[in-house]
From TrEMBL, chain B:
Residues 131-169 form the RNA polymerase sigma factor 70 region 4 type domain. NCBIfam families: sigma70-ECF. Belongs to the sigma-70 factor family. ECF subfamily. It comes from the Bacteria. Keywords: Sigma factor, Transcription, Transcription regulation. GO terms for molecular function: DNA binding; sigma factor activity. This is RNA polymerase subunit sigma-24.
Length: 46, 194
């Protein structure tokens, strides 16, 4: 059997990039949902 | 360590109440599972990253709108969102399949660049200049007919009118011109192919 020398990351070690997580946190901070009567308005304030 | 002790449900309700740090804890806690799940379906890091991001954007939107009602089942809910987004991704890709050129049929066998590469264009120039030098070696009457026929694309009728000889003479001169060219080429072993 040929041996594979390339390092294979196991699926469990896979993680999203730090930037993606940061983006999500910033997105969450910027998003505000305004309730007006029965309507909901989403506002992204950067 | 303390983060591990707080249940997802508590973090979710803290987040809904406005505690942004609770979301960070939730994402950090589950990012590996969610991302690995997506990657195991799409096998593309960039696509997995995009779907991961879209998943949590949906999570954030839903939580902020107060539309979340699955108490204590945060992770299965997130997984279901990501699963749906993976399905959307494959649906979209099936409708617009990408051409990856990995199959047996190569598009480049049909779409080829017909212009000569550098080496071939140099060879072509050399061959052409060799031919011109060979033509110069021909007797004047043969050379004249050959130039008119080949380079000026004139008919033998036109050649005979222009040179004042009969068509048969022009044909004969053309014939001798070609015979003589072949002789010189054979004698000097000149290769005139590209």
């Amino acid at each position: 059997m040929a041996k594979l020398y390339s390092e294979q990351k196991s699926l469990n070690e896979m993680q999203p990039q730090e930037e993606t997580v940061k983006f999500l946190l910033n997105y969450s901070k910027a998003l505000s949902v305004i309730n007006y009567k029965k309507m909901k308005f989403e506002a992204l304030l950067n | 360590m303390q983060d591990q002790l707080i249940p997802d449900a508590t973090l979710v309700s803290s987040y809904i109440k406005g505690q942004e740090s609770a979301l960070e804890t939730l994402i950090v806690r589950h990012k590996q599972k969610v991302y690995s799940f997506i990657y195991s379906k799409v096998y593309d890091k960039d696509v997995a990253e995009d779907i991961f991001q879209d998943t949590f954007i949906k999570v954030i939107n839903t939580l902020k709108r107060g539309a979340y009602n699955e108490e204590g089942k945060f992770l299965p809910w997130v997984m279901r969102i990501s699963h749906n987004l993976v399905i959307d991704y494959f649906r979209k890709n099936n409708r617009m399949p990408k051409f990856d050129n990995a199959g047996e049929f190569s598009i480049f066998s049909v779409l080829s660049d017909t212009s000569l590469n550098a080496e071939k264009s140099i060879i072509k120039e050399q061959v052409e200049s060799d031919v011109r030098r060979l033509v110069e070696e021909l007797p004047d009457d043969q050379k004249e007919v050959l130039l008119m026929r080949i380079y000026k694309d004139m008919s033998f009728k036109e050649i005979s009118d222009k040179t004042g000889v009969s068509i048969n003479t022009a044909l004969g001169r053309m014939r001798y011109a070609l015979i003589n060219l072949r002789k010189i080429i054979e004698k000097h072993n000149i290769v005139l192919t590209n």
